[in-house]
Write a structure and sequence with these properties.
binds pyridoxal-5'-phosphate; single chain; Aspartate Aminotransferase, domain 1
């Protein structure tokens, strides 16, 4: 029946168009409506009291919750097999609120050198001013070695499942095991993979982060982020005293102050972000952008499957080209990450690949200037193919030694495959190579 609750048993492709939304609760509207409202009338004084004391669930004010945004949260929560999800105004808000929620008041985060440029730069410039320090894993490809870098005040391990721009794959299961042996959670930025290609929670992650700006939405028309939690990590833990704080706002009917662990056992981490960081730092996602993200999600599998096929075809084309020094793409047989790809990425390796341009700086610039069909800008995961010289742009904040650590050589060119005809894309690269070599 068209108006029944989507069953938990539905598979991924069904959930991506149905989860978290029941038409009968919304005047039988098939497409989730945009609740363009700041606030919500209380039924009566009792209702207001119950909402403020969390004895009744409902919406109060769109900064902390909105019905359209809630559909997005429920949908991604279902796709990832999470216990709770929180949508935010950007991927950077998702990262910053997560890291502050983990390490507020001071602490360390053990991370990987293979990260989004904005993450690396903010870890250096901003977080230390809030008492949050970062340690870079010396051998992230050997997860057992991480144990030696976990200190008494390390609050989490933070990695990307497919790194941007290098498409480095990590053994997430093994990294999760080391984290859990030391009583700390594993945070995975799953932006590039999306839940279609990789499910971090199934591989042991405790917290998953998305920039929904990229592949999740996939149309290059908004900025959005999400934080999800597995519901499995024990926050009642002396390493995280902030989760043992009892608040007046969480009091029970007898006036006893309670903790997030007591009141929201399935959603401790994201609820604490919602009512502390989202509530008071305020990076709320707009209902309209949530609506567009829901729309984008409806074609997630179809887009990622086609982009993975196109990226592999482009990788093979580039591998055979005389003007290409190397190609990095996990689905290539020669890739250093091919074994992990075969083990963990049954649906493909996604749309991002990179290659080393063989030639002078001038020829590389001539190549980029000659490109006609690919867009030249800093986004990824769009329906339109993109090409960019990452070391000089998206990762331009990194100093020379940081680029060396992240393995980003100056001649790296990153592609994000879109949905165009593969022959048109290859023809565009070919004519640009020809002009660069002319
Ligand atoms: C883009 C990106 C971010 C930041 O997301 P915004 O939505 O642009 O704030 C974080 N992580 C990764 C891997 C990204 O690609």
């Amino acid at each position: 029946m068209a108006n029944e609750t989507p069953s938990d048993a539905y598979r991924f492709d069904t959930q991506k168009v149905r989860a978290g939304y029941e038409p009968k609760d919304h005047n039988y509207a098939v497409s989730p409506p945009i609740y363009q409202t700041t606030s919500y009338d209380f039924r009566d004084v009792e209702n207001a009291k119950n909402l403020f004391s969390f004895n009744e669930q409902g919406f109060l004010y769109t900064r902390v919750g909105n019905p359209t945004v809630a559909v997005l949260e429920e949908r991604v929560k279902t796709l990832d097999g999470a216990s709770a999800a929180l949508a935010l105004a950007s991927g950077m808000a998702a990262i910053s609120y997560t890291l502050l929620n983990l390490a507020e008041g001071g602490g360390r985060i053990l991370t990987s050198p293979y990260l989004y440029g904005g993450s690396t730069d903010s870890f250096k410039k901003i977080y230390p001013k809030f008492g949050v320090q970062f340690d870079y894993a010396q051998h992230i490809e050997r997860p057992e070695s991480l144990a030696a870098q976990i200190k008494p005040d390390t609050k989490a391990i933070f990695v990307e499942s497919i790194s941007n721009p290098n498409t480095v794959l990590l053994d997430i299961d093994a990294i999760a095991k080391v984290a859990h042996q030391h009583g700390i959670p594993l945070v995975v930025d799953n932006t590039v993979a999306t839940p279609y290609l990789f499910n971090p929670i199934a591989h042991g992650a405790d917290i998953v982060i998305y920039s929904a700006t990229k592949g999740l939405n996939g149309h290059g028309n908004l900025i959005a982020g999400l934080v999800l939690e597995s519901g499995r990590f024990d926050w009642n833990n002396p390493r995280f005293p902030q989760f043992a704080e009892a608040y007046y706002t969480l009091r029970d009917e007898n006036g006893r102050h309670r903790t997030f662990v007591e009141v929201f056992p399935e959603a401790v981490f994201t609820t604490r972000i919602r009512f502390n960081y989202l509530n008071y730092f305020g990076a709320a996602l707009s209902p309209f952008d949530a609506y567009l993200t829901i729309l984008g999600l409806e074609t997630l599998s179809e887009r990622l499957a086609k982009q993975s096929g196109t990226a592999l075809a482009l990788a093979k084309y580039l591998e055979a080209h005389a003007s290409v020094e190397w190609v990095r793409y996990p689905a290539l047989k020669g890739s250093a990450h091919h074994a992990l790809y075969q083990r963990d990425f049954k649906n493909g390796a996604g749309g991002i690949l990179s290659f080393g341009f063989k030639g002078t700086d001038k020829q590389r610039e001539a190549f980029l200037n000659a490109i006609q069909l690919f867009h030249y800008h800093v986004n990824i995961g769009d329906a339109r193919s993109l090409i960019v010289n990452s070391p000089q742009t998206t990762h331009g904040e990194l100093e020379a030694e940081e680029k060396a650590l992240a393995n980003i050589p100056e001649n790296l060119i990153r592609i994000s495959a879109g949905l165009e005809d593969i022959d048109d894309l290859i023809a565009d690269l070919s004519q640009a190579f020809a002009k660069a070599n002319a």
